[in-house]
Each structure stands twice: as C-alpha cells, then as structure tokens.
Amino acid sequence: MKQLFALLLAAAPAVTFAAAAPNLDSVVITDVTIVDGTGAPARKGSVRIAEGRIVAVGDVIPGNSEIVIEGNGKTLAPGFIDTHSHHDFDIPKSPDMVAVTSQGVTTIIVGQDGTSQWPLREFYAKLEKDPIAVNLGSYSGHNTLREQGMGSARRAATDDDLARMSQLLEDDMAAGAFGLSTGLIYETGNFSTPAEVIALAKVSARLGGRYISHIRNEGFELMSALQEVIDIGRETGAPVQVSHIKVGVKKLWGTSDKVLKLLNDARASGVDITADIYPYTYWQSTMRVMFPNKVYDDRKGLEFMLKESTPPEGLHFSRYQPDPTIVGKSLAQVAKERNTNPVDLYLALMKLAIEYEKAHPNEERIESVIGESMREDDVIRLMTWEHTNICSDGVSIGHPRGHGTFPRVLGHYVRDKKAMTLEQGVYKMTGLAAKHLGLTDRGTIAEGQSADLVLFDPETIADRATLQNPTALSVGIEKVWVNGKLVYQDRRTTGLHPGQVVRAPKKTE
C-alpha cells in the first residue's frame, strides 16, 4: 500500500503563530457560558484546569497564583470530536493541524472509508514520539487489510485471505484501533462479499471493536446498502455506524424519513446503529465513484450517473495531477472550453488519470472530484436524528468541509436555520460523538475529564471555506485547548503539540 503518511504534494496554506499564552499547571477560565456536551441547558460559570484535566466546574474562585483567562461571557464547550476524519494526511505538512483546531476540533478519528495507516502500531509510535496539536485515534481499514493481506485484488477473499486479514486486524486492534472501517464503494472493498465483511467484523467485535462503513451505495441502492450495515450489527452484536449518511440521488430526494424508519426499526430490534454526517449538500471522492460498475470505460454507467446523481455543472475537479489547469472547474466548464461533450471528456480524463497513476506509483491522491447530489431538507432531517453525530470527512484539499464543518453547523444550522438548539448542536459534536466511540474521558465538561475545550462566540461563529477558497479559516472560534494546553487563539496556532494517541477502550468481560 502506498503510505498515507507520505508528504502531501498539495500546497498547504501559510500558517502564522500567535504568541503562546502561559500554560502553567493551573488555569481558571472565568465568566463563560458553559455548554457541557451532555445536552443540558447552558449555564454561567468558570472552569479550572490543571495537569491536562478539568478539576472544577461552576462557581470557581481563582487563587492568587493561578493563570486567569477571561471568557467575557462567550460559550465554553468540550473540544469537538471529529468521528470521521482524513486529516492525518495533513500531519507531515502541518502538525499544528490548523484546519482542525481552527474549527474547535480537539480529537480526530481517522482510518476511515476502509483505508488506514499501516501498520497502525508504528504510526502510533511515531505520533507519541512527535505529537501533533490534537488527539488522534484510528480504525483499521478493510481496504488496507485487503491490500496487505491479498494484494490489490478485484475479487472476493478466499479462506486463506481471510485468515491473513484477520491476523492483521487483530494486530491493529491490539495497537488500539476502534474497530473495522469499510469503504465498500471503493476498490478493493467493493469486490468483497457481505460474508467477508461479516467475518472480519466478527474479529473486531470479539476484541471489543466497533464497525463503521462508507456503505456500498448512497444512491439508488441506499436502502439495501444500509441493510447490510444493520445485518453486520445483528450478526456481530457490535455497535455499527453509517459514515456520512446521505440521500445522494435526485430520485430519492425527500426520502430521509424512510431512511430513518429503517434505522429506528433496527434499533428497536436491538441493533446499536448510529450515523455521522457533514453539513453540506456536496461530496468529495475519487473520479471512480461515477462508474457504478467499477468499469472505467463504462459509457452507459457514466451517462446514467451524470443524469441521475451529479450533473456536469455540479461536478468539480478538486485535484487532477495529470492536468492541474482543470482544478476548480466543473466538468461542464471544461467540456465547453474544449468543445467536447462531458461524457467523452470524463472518460478521457479517467483514462489519463489511470495511466498517470501507473506511471507514478508512489504519488498519493492523483485525482479528486466534488459533486453536488444532496438536498438540504434531507441533510437537516438526517442531521437532527437523535443518533447522528457531526463529522467532517475532511482533509485540507478541495472540499470546504475540511476547514468549515463544525463552525458551519453552529452558525448555519443552529443559529441561522434553528434546526436545533445550541446545546443539541454541541452535544452532537462532543458527548454524542464520544458515546459513539465508547470514550468516557472526553466529550463533556466535568471534573476528571480531559481538558479539551473550545471557547467560541455563538453570535459570530461561521464557516468561511468555499469551493473557490476551501482553506479559508472560520470565524468565531476564540480559543482551543487540548489536554489543558492552548493550541489556537486569535485565528492562529500557538505552535504547541499536546495531542495524545486515543486508543479504544479495552474490552471488559
């Protein structure tokens, strides 16, 4: 497998550093409105942190020798937990993790969509030697297991393949993985059978792991793809989560209630199924997802997808190494410039990308597209389901979700659209996210919890990242602490790297 931890080739935004505030053993954050991550009503108070932990909450009177940080009535919440992130790609270029901290995020969970760092134990050892600004945990990726255990196979696994993959998964679980992640829409996961996935999910479940999935189809076969996750939850008894849940084709727009009925019925039958979601109506992925049968010269399949899912004017190139001049443009725009039709152009660009990839085997992220295929009323309905937490699915390339997800929820959906209360929005980013990971020491403001905190202004918080400027920093995030250390203030990083490796809780008999 190409090492995901290779240096990013994309240019990273320039980062300036704020003067690091004093970080003594005891700090009191005074005059804040505490939204504690449980969903409880906001309340006025102060918070004392010491040695990386929250040690007092409420009517806290600072001592003479303590550092006092005036909150000026702003909102203090637990640091946001991104349960589905790809920001590990950013680490080599930016261990300050400005894309993450600028959103108020203090913990990221990577290894998503079936692809994870390998071997995970070595990745964790590197992070413990050279920490980053935020906490990081990971799943073990099914596609990575396939690549390491059976090569880049476009076929189902044999019994011997399963045995090798099971051992690799056990190694990742011993290193602290949260469980198994799949990307069943991607190669080579889409060639796996449900029986293969269940067999590996059982290995994870036996070791106390969870299961999270980019399902096989987020469009026309959405319901059957969701049923596969439900079946895995029922077969293994493990908690299961649907990654970045969406209704991704026009024909199914408005059917989010049917989706939620399926999930609620599964929960009522004993399956612990949950979801995460990002707050946008457009996705980002590889160009290959536009070919439903994974045959990359399939004209009819491509025509169907451009008609029923993502039209040429709504499909944007966010990365294309063979010809970077098309980046930022839509398929319709490039087709017009080249006096050709979108289908012929896309087929030619896909062929060129495959040839480029073969000629540059060590280069990561050859191509990427952003597609508009969702409707906002479905996004709101799925986001406000009581078992959905917020995620970014982000990396600092192309899609604005990589820099804007969490402020967008609090600004656009909480304050402006009033889709949920501030307390509910924060809960979905903190306490609920922690619950969906099995974490008990992060995600709420309470004595004994890790001092991961974000101070923000609910009146001004907003995302600024766009398709045209995807790395623009959000506004309204005042300060961010990770394990008691100030890592972000005044829209700049402090240069501190107090992040910890977050391992899954050990299974108890």
UniProtKB/TrEMBL annotation:
Keyword Signal: yes
Residue ranges constituting the Amidohydrolase domain according to the UniProt record: 71-254, 392-488
Pfam families, per the entry: Amidohydro_3
InterPro entries reported in the protein's UniProt record: Amidohydro_3 (IPR013108), D-aminoacylase_insert_dom_sf (IPR023100), Metal-dep_hydrolase_composite (IPR011059), Metal_Hydrolase (IPR032466), Metallo-dep_Hydrolases_sf (IPR050378)
Superkingdom assignment: Bacteria
UniProt keyword Signal present: yes
The protein's name in its UniProt record: Amidohydrolase family protein
Organism expressing this protein natively: Steroidobacter flavus
